[in-house]
Amino acid sequence: MSQGSATQGTAEALSGAQGDTLLGLATLGKTALALALVIGVILLCSALLKRVGPGRTGHNRHLKLVASTAVGQRERVVIVEVEGTWLVLGVGGGEVTRLHEMPAPEPHEPAGPAADADGFAARFATAMRHNARNKFTRSDKRSGEDV
């Protein structure tokens, strides 16, 4: 074998290795794109289910969950409103037990910060006007005293 033949063989081997590497990278890129597409479809479906899920449909308008609290690992006490009546239910161990029944209270406006927001805004505006008047009247008096 001549030296030209050995060099040519080495060049062919290197170009074959580069071709295999490029082919591998192309396959990896296609796989990553397919995986990203599947994850995107899953995220889109989950967002769609949150918007149009079982709690969002109109067939449940007579039954409303008012409150729920855990009293054990698998036991809960749940308050459910059914057509103007509150049912206090014990849920656990694969069964539901009615603990108490009472008429639902009349809805009222919350007495928290949301109800007091207009009152606070009005008081804040009054305080700002009062402070602005005091500041400008003091500066006018000071400028009159300096003259």
UniProtKB/TrEMBL annotation:
It holds the Pfam family FliO. GO terms for cellular component: bacterial-type flagellum basal body; plasma membrane. Its main location: membrane. The keyword Cell division does not apply. InterPro entries: Flagellar_biosynth_FliO, FliO/MopB. The chain crosses the membrane at residues 31-49. It is found in: Cell membrane; Bacterial flagellum basal body. GO terms for biological process: bacterial-type flagellum organization. Keywords: Bacterial flagellum, Cell membrane, Cell projection, Cilium, Flagellum, Membrane, Transmembrane, Transmembrane helix. Belongs to the FliO/MopB family. NCBIfam families: FliO_TIGR. This is Flagellar protein.
